[in-house]
Design a protein that fits this description.
With about 270 residues, the chain is an alpha/beta fold. The protein has one domain: 3-Layer(aba) Sandwich (Rossmann fold), CATH 3.40.50. The chain has helices at about 1-10, 25-45, 60-75, 100-105, 130-150, 160-175, 200-210, 230-240, 245-255, 265-270; strands spanning about 50-55, 80-90, 95, 110-120, 155, 185, 190-195, 220. It is globular and about 60 Å long.
Length: about 270
């Protein structure tokens, strides 16, 4: 019970001296979102004593928010865990971030930072979806660095909107019900992928960034506006327009499955 209290309320009153918020309302936004992230971390056991966490820092709003929240938590918990950050730059995809900004952002929070580059050809790879290729090569680079640095967890900045979007796309395009989980074991338990922002919506992340006064210094990818995910995110926004708590209720529905009211496999198939 004491540990749960420390996780959930460890965000209160911690604001680094060089990052003071400019209003009481901003402070409340930060506290509310940190509390939600800390609750997720506690409930799913995402962080344990002596963990070595490799954080994928793209420079976008999600990864900056995740790093800021994890540092605030690290500075308050009664046990130690380590955070290192890496930025994976791709030569093949026209997306870039201000490396000096990321270096400074990490230095202010006493987080080790490196930048790495991956190179591959969109034209010659038969898996010619640029978003898929980018994700695969960045993820493989993270796995390699995780092993190289002796880390046991990789933190990714996927939020609730990302998870819901993935579930909808899997249902529409692949005929399966699956999403992005809070944690996922890889390589027979050697590495655990964790997602501390998985209960926080994209809109909440934007509010956090605004409240903290962070700048997003990235060059948008030219493929971003034409992807299926962008279109699905617009669909999620329409759901929220119909009912403001739509995303939170969809999140709850992922663990509240009434299988007897779903179309299951035919009886002769189930019996095989």
């Amino acid at each position: 019970m004491i540990l749960k209290f420390l996780f959930i309320f460890s965000n209160f009153y911690f604001i680094p001296h060089n990052m003071q918020l400019n209003s009481a309302s901003s402070a409340k936004i930060v506290q509310k979102i940190r509390k939600k992230a800390n609750k997720t971390i506690y409930e799913y056991g995402l962080i344990k004593p002596n963990d070595k966490i490799l954080l994928g820092l793209s420079g976008g709003k999600d990864s900056l928010t995740m790093l800021d929240i994890l540092v605030a938590l690290r500075n308050k918990l009664p046990f130690q865990f380590e955070v290192k950050a890496v930025h994976i730059q791709s030569k093949a995809i026209p997306y870039s971030s201000d490396l000096q900004f990321l270096q400074n952002f990490c230095a202010e929070r006493n987080v080790y930072f490196e930048s790495r580059t991956v190179d591959y050809s969109i034209e010659t790879d038969d898996r010619n979806n640029p978003c898929y290729l980018c994700a695969v090569h960045r993820r493989n680079a993270l796995f390699g660095i995780c092993s190289e640095w002796g880390m046991n967890k990789i933190a990714l900045g996927h939020n609730l909107t990302d998870s819901i979007g993935t579930m909808l796309m899997n249902m529409m395009f692949h005929g399966e019900t699956s999403a992005i989980p809070p944690s996922l074991t890889m390589f027979g338990g050697e590495v655990l992928l964790i997602r501390p922002l998985i209960s926080i919506t994209e809109e909440e992340v934007k509010k956090y960034i605004s409240a903290r006064g962070f700048e997003i210094k990235t060059k948008n990818c030219e493929f971003a506006e034409s992807t299926s995910r962008t279109k699905v995110n617009a669909l999620i926004q329409q759901m929220e327009n119909i009912y403001p708590d739509a995303q939170q209720n969809i999140r709850k529905s992922m663990s509240n499955i009434l299988s007897e009211y779903l179309i299951g496999a035919p009886l002769n198939q189930s019996a095989q």
